[in-house]
Amino acid sequence: MLKEKITYQILINGVVQGVGFRPLIWRLAHAHQLNGEVFNNTEGVTIILQDSNSSLQLFLSELQRSLPAVARIDCLTVTPIPTEKLYTDFTISSSVSSSHRKVPVSPDLHVCRDCLRELFDPDNRRYLYPFINCTNCGPRFSIVKDLPYDRQNTTMDNFRMCSLCQQEYDNPADRRFHAQPNACPECGPQLVLTDGIVTLLKTGDREANARFFQTLSDLLLKGHILAIKSIGGFHLACDARNEVVVRNLRQRKYREDKPFAVMFPTLKSVQEYCYTSSAEEVLLQSIPHPIVILRKNGLNNLADSIAPRNNYLGAMLPYTPIHHLIFKFCPHPLVMTSGNVSDEPIAFEDEDALLRLRGIADYFVIHNRPIFIRCDDSVTRVFNERTYPIRISRGYAPCEIPTLVRFATPILACGAEQKNTIALACDERIIISQHIGDLKNYNTYQAFLRNIEHLKRLYDVHPKIVAHDQHPEYLSTKYALELAENSEEPIDLIGIQHHHAHAVACMVDNNLNEPVIGIILDGTGYGSDGTIWGGEILRVEYDDFERLGHFDYVPMPGGQAAIDHPWQMALSYLIKVFGKDALGMELPFLSQIPLSERLLIGHLLEENFNAPLTSSCGRLFDGVAALTGLCLHANYEGQPAIEFEQAITIAEVTPYRLVINEQCTPFRLLWGPMIQEIVADLESKCSEGTIALKFHLAIVQALFMAAQLARNLTGINKIVLSGGVFMNMFLLENLVQRLRQARFEVFTHQNLPCNDGGIAAGQAVIANAKIGLKF
Known about the structure:
Blueprint: E1 6-15, H1 21-31, E2 35-41, E3 44-51, H2 55-65, E4 72-80, E5 90-92, H3 113-119, H4 163-170, E6 191-194, E7 199-202, H5 206-221, E8 226-229, E9 234-239, H6 243-253, E10 261-263, H7 267-273, H8 278-284, E11 291-295, E12 312-316, H9 321-329, E13 334-338, H10 350-356, E14 363-367, E15 379-383, E16 386-391, E17 399-413, E18 423-432, H11 442-459, E19 465-469, H12 475-486, E20 492-496, H13 498-509, E21 516-526, E22 532-540, E23 545-551, E24 554-555, H14 560-564, H15 566-578, H16 595-607, E25 613-614, H17 617-627, H18 639-646, E26 659-661, E27 667-670, H19 672-683, H20 688-714, E28 718-722, H21 729-741, E29 745-747, H22 759-770
Parallel strand pairs: 2-5, 8-14, 10-12, 11-15, 17-19, 19-20, 21-28, 23-27, 28-29
Antiparallel strand pairs: 1-3, 1-4, 2-3, 6-7, 6-14, 8-9, 9-13, 10-13, 11-12, 15-16, 17-18, 21-22, 22-23, 24-25, 26-27
């Protein structure tokens, strides 16, 4: 007697669209002789199965084991449902829309091994085709205009597939079944080489493609700079071994010192120039293919000006078919930096690139597959064998962070002024945008506005609460205020203290929802007392924080100018310790500053004019780096601190005295004795490497003592470390080691950057807690 068939509805949420999930379901259903259907919806994937035996459990077990590489199941529910329909086969049905969207958008994916094999197979019809892709690889987020993820909702909607591509697209057994960017040389996008005025070459058949990429190789090896359109925007590329062309790129791009990233043909090529650990090798080859910060081995012929005065190099491997084709014909390391003028967002539209990059690039490689939303390269490094993000963007974004709280109403978090990202919070997750940049630039601010609208549309989220930084002059703050003022519906604004947001972002990153001690170190953050914070020891919960301690205040003469010219911070520290006599001190760095400029800074400090107080640890790094003469003028954010860390010479030394005044509430970390000792070392001709080491060890020792004091005051043993200063690996590694030896539970970032690129997540969770929506 046949068993009665039971119909089950399986609802799956997670990264399950555009990653080969439905073809997998189709194959598993046929393997287990199950009938029914599967279709995308705006919340994920729905599976209907009719089962008359025990195959359902086997099906579900094998599904969990066989997920495509980039797929992720967040929630799976199985429910018996009544139906009179009798399925006689298993099919993939059309997508179904609903009013509620929960499906994550897949990040852009690197080209997979199967496609690479076909790309270089002369017998394959896609041989040397620069837009080869399948359900396991290719562009995703950067081409998606709307959901569900179907071809008509992407920038591929204008490319009509040829009969062979259509057959692949319609065949559930094919690797390209419903691969939305599916294309071939007959029906898909093509590349164009231009000098900005005249079209020089086009791709097409295999002979044209070989000629095209051989020409690109010739141009690169002759010392030309190329603007190359990639997945999320344009790169500026040149021969990384050619010092003249790298210097030329710096001059044209107005990027004096900030390191360039280098793309290497293979992992073996990376290892010729950099030391790599097994964790770093895994990260380089991971699906996001980020830029990974690696230590140089010193045995290479790369141009010195790629990363001047820096022991590290930003390395990445090719992640698109275009990159792999370039390296087939030009197997040498290439500078591959963002296609922009410094501080602007990357160009991603052809006309804009031809306009903005005309004075930088000699030639342009463009194509007719539009990029809908720009997405710069991600930057990472490895700490304690785990990924330690610096910039989250292509390959990671949109980044979804699950939370321990439920957001009963959607929240928009506007992020910070620098390294801006935004966040949407709804249900039990936070959706973090790709890196947007520094909002003071007009084009970056326009990108900020576009990204907000794009994420709201993709996820069909209309926030009623907007969280923003408390700094009144941040453009992200001003946007929030204008949004509330001009909105037809009421919007609640919640200002979030900058360092509270940093701490909670690290808590969210580690699934913590309990009181913690936060050590938050950065350059700038608007404090609750109206001063500029940045060296904070806090007691932190989601809904509130208490300032337990901080670095002693010092004036910032000239405000922003003191950040751009660290010698002004150095002079401020000297005057605070030695008084007016500091103006005439015979220190090497002061001899490089005209007396008139020193007197002007002294006057600003004496009159307390345009000299806001700061407790910033970042400014302390700047000031001491300038004291040694290492970096008097900063050409990019964090340069003094980065170069100061690079200068460390390991030896047996006694740290400088950075003492704690426990009589104050909050307690204070007093740097005065340290400044006195540094001056004494400078006068005795102590090397900058030794000064750098003693300074770093003093910071570690003082923070360790501050943590112990904070534990004694609060009884809390868990510590989160956040803020941009913790991109300093020497500081991070040594402090974490000391804290763990003292049996602290220490938490660092792993999905979100420790810098301002991560605080939007903290803003969202704090706003949720402040309105009492905990569940």
